[in-house]
Design a protein that fits this description.
One of its GO terms (molecular function) is glycosyltransferase activity. It is built from 13 helices and twelve strands. With about 350 residues, it is an alpha/beta fold.
Length: about 350
């Protein structure tokens, strides 16, 4: 795209939550507005404008620059104040921590701010529109035949719990393993799956978890699976009876939504947007982060009633359909872009 009116920068080569958000939203938003991403590490088929072209864009056209990181806010300011591009600067914040003075200054320069949850908005010192993330409900759906899918993936029958995502202390992978060791002692037919990637820095952490499971004699019941590609992950939610999101810190956190869209109820810690996603006991439970007994007890309570567990899965799907469709997120952002362009 040679002359977009909305630019979504991604100034980080390595895959991250921001990169994934841009990759999910831009292909939808381009249906309603001329938008392009810029920067490295993005899918080749995404509408794109090279970074090197930005200083040479027409100064007669007003555009929205939608930043999601400090570096991207700074580049937007540089393009506006030095190269004199007519930019309306928008920042989306997912952080749930007090901002540094530098970040506060950058945010103060923005024309508008979005927060991905009400909790996130509480850390900002200016007004922000809350626009929560959504997911693609066509990609994440309940299974047609859970038993057959388990057979295809070589998974056991009985009660199956999962914890997916990056493997590290912050993500609470160890809390899931400890809770699973407890649950395996309470239920004869319960199994757990840990799936995700441990970066080089966290390979020792993963090795310690595997060793703990082996010493407990549970290597056949708590399974460690390698990360799968995006097009395969929905199947791994569809085989579950319960999803555990044990994070100690999170910006937003999409995994509970992905599980719920697949008809799987959730036990999650009270971090990120989890308490704003799991809003009713009919959908799952929210517990204090780092409280492993509470995590295990909440899971045990849900697993002990198979009928209630199935009803929770159905309610979870309906809840996501009504509140977290990615088309809703995309259209709400486009409406904000159009408002900024009209105000200009």
């Amino acid at each position: 795209m040679s002359d977009p009116v909305v630019i979504a920068p991604n100034l980080k080569r390595r895959l991250s939550g921001v990169t994934a958000t841009i990759a999910r939203l831009v292909p939808l938003q381009v249906q309603w507005i001329d938008i392009a991403a810029t920067g490295p590490g993005l899918p080749a088929d995404l509408p794109h404008i090279p970074l090197g072209r930005l200083p040479f864009l027409s100064r007669k056209t007003t555009r929205v620059w939608h930043a999601r990181r400090n570096t991207e806010m700074l580049l937007g300011l540089f393009l506006r104040n030095v190269f004199r591009l007519r930019l309306k600067l928008l920042f989306t914040s997912a952080s749930q921590r007090s901002h540094t003075g530098y970040t506060k200054w950058l945010i103060d320069q923005m024309d508008a701010v979005v927060a991905t949850s009400r909790k996130t908005a509480g850390y900002l010192e200016r007004d922000a529109q809350v626009i929560m993330h959504g997911i693609n409900l066509q990609n994440f759906t309940p299974p047609a035949d859970k038993a057959a899918l388990r057979g295809k993936l070589g998974l056991p029958s009985g009660l199956l719990l999962g914890c997916y995502g990056r493997i590290r202390h912050q993500k609470g992978t160890d809390a899931f393993v400890d809770a699973m060791i407890d649950l395996c002692g309470r239920f004869e037919d319960v199994h757990g799956i840990v799936m995700g990637r441990a970066t080089e820095k966290h390979t020792g952490f993963l090795a310690e978890l595997k060793d703990k499971v082996a010493k407990a004699g549970l290597s056949d019941r708590i399974l460690f699976k390698p990360e799968v590609t995006v097009d395969q992950i929905a199947e791994w939610y569809q085989v579950l009876d319960l999803f555990i999101a044990p994070q100690r810190w999170e910006g937003f956190g999409l995994t509970p939504l992905e599980a719920m869209a697949c008809g799987v109820p959730v036990v999650a810690t009270d971090v990120g947007a989890f308490a704003e996603i799991v809003t009713d006991p009919s959908l799952g439970q929210v517990v204090e982060p780092g409280n492993i007994p509470a995590l295990a007890d909440a899971a045990a309570e849900m697993l002990s009633n198979s009928e209630s567990l199935a009803l929770s899965g159905s309610a979870a799907r309906v809840h996501v359909e009504q509140n977290f469709d990615i088309y809703g997120e995309a259209k709400t952002l486009v409406a904000l872009y159009e408002r900024l362009l009209t105000d200009a």
